[in-house]
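Ticket #4471: structure export looks truncated?
Reporter: QA, pipeline team
Priority: medium

Steps to reproduce: submit the single chain below to the structure queue and open the exported record.
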Amino acid sequence: MTTSDEQSNTGHGHVYPRADGVKARCGGPGLCEVCSADQARKQQEHAPADFDTATMSVKNYYHPTPDEVSFHPQPSEAINQPLTYAEHRRRLIEYLQAKVALSDWHGVSDAANDLRELEAHERGKSGR
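Actual output as written to the record:
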């Protein structure tokens, strides 16, 4: 699909192809101000809603939701009430599912590795 800029482009032709196929000998984006401005505009037009083109990152990516925060035990809970194997496993699986819902694959990997270590520790304790 082409945008109206691509159909009626009379610019340099590096970012938005011209109908006549001509490209200016300006060096394109990175070297030419006009082409760089076209490139920035094109990235803005095609960026996902949660993508910040100014910082080239996903907006609010590292801000946990209230549901995520609830997965982390409070310090007094962690110190005074050790988790049972079943409760620890349940919390890790719940956390993993939250990370899947957020498409946070690094978090999914971390949770999966924690589950693997937890289960290996439990097998070691039971002699399996």
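Status: closed, not a bug. The export was complete when the record was re-opened. Leaving a note from the reviewer for reference: The mean pLDDT is 75.
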